[in-house]
C-alpha cells in the first residue's frame, strides 16, 4: 500500500521545538521531491518547505526561514521537518507530500503550487502557552 505517514506533532509552548517525521511505504522516496505543507483553520494551505531528491536543493517559505530545517534520509525512506522558535502562528495541520520531478520546474515553484503524487493525512501542531 502506497502511503505517507506523518508523526511528531503535538502541543508545544512558544519558543519551543518539534521534529516532524514523514515515512513513506510502498514506494522509494529517493525518486521524489518531498515537501511539508500546513493549513491553519480558515486559511489556505501553505508550502512550508521542499527538498530535492538528493537533498542538495531546498526551499523555505519566508514565514519559516531560519527557524525550520527540512531533511531526508533516503535509506530510511523518511523525511523530517525540524521546527524551532515556534510561534502561535505556526499552529496548523502539517502534511508531507511527494512528487516525481518530471520537468525543469524549480523546487520553489513545485512547493508553492503543491506537490502532486502522494499526500499524507497530516499531524497537528499546536503552539500555545
Summarize the structure.
5% of the residues lie in helices and 46% in strands. It has 129 residues and is mostly beta strands.
What does this structure look like?
About 5% of the residues lie in helices and about 45% in strands. The protein has about 130 residues and is mostly beta strands. The strands form two sheets. Strands 2, 4, 5, 6, 9, 10 and 11 form a seven-stranded mixed β-sheet that branches. A four-stranded antiparallel β-sheet has the order 1-3-8-7, with no helix packed on it. It has one helix and eleven strands. The protein has one helix at about 105-115, and strands at about 5, 10, 20-25, 35-40, 45-50, 60, 70-75, 80-85, 90-100, 120, 125. The chain is globular and about 40 Å long.
Structure keywords:
129 residues; mainly beta; 46% strand
Low-confidence stretches: none
* Morphology call: globular
Largest sheet: 7 strands, mixed
By DSSP (H or I, 4+ residues per run), the number of helices equals: 1
Summarize the amount of helix as a percent range: under 10%
Overall pLDDT score: 96
Layout of secondary structure:
Layout: E1 3-7, E2 10-12, E3 18-25, E4 33-39, E5 46-51, E6 58-60, E7 68-73, E8 78-83, E9 92-99, H1 107-113, E10 118-119, E11 123-127
Parallel strand pairs: 2-11
Antiparallel strand pairs: 1-3, 3-8, 4-5, 4-9, 5-6, 7-8, 9-10, 9-11
Amino acid at each position: 500500500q502506497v502511503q505517507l505517514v506523518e508523526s511528531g506533532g503535538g502541543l508545544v509552548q512558544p519558543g519551543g521545538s518539534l521534529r516532524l517525521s514523514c515515512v513513506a511505504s510502498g514506494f522509494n522516496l529517493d525518486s521524489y521531491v518531498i515537501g511539508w505543507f500546513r493549513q491553519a483553520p480558515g486559511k489556505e494551505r501553505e508550502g512550508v518547505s521542499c527538498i530535492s531528491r538528493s537533498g542538495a536543493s531546498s526551499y523555505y517559505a519566508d514565514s519559516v526561514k531560519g527557524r525550520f530545517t527540512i531533511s531526508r534520509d533516503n535509506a530510511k525512506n523518511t523525511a523530517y521537518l525540524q521546527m524551532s522558535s515556534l510561534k502561535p502562528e505556526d499552529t496548523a495541520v502539517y502534511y508531507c507530500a511527494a512528487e516525481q520531478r518530471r520537468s525543469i520546474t524549480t523546487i520553489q515553484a513545485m512547493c508553492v503550487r503543491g506537490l502532486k503524487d502522494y499526500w499524507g493525512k497530516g499531524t497537528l501542531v499546536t503552539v500555545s502557552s
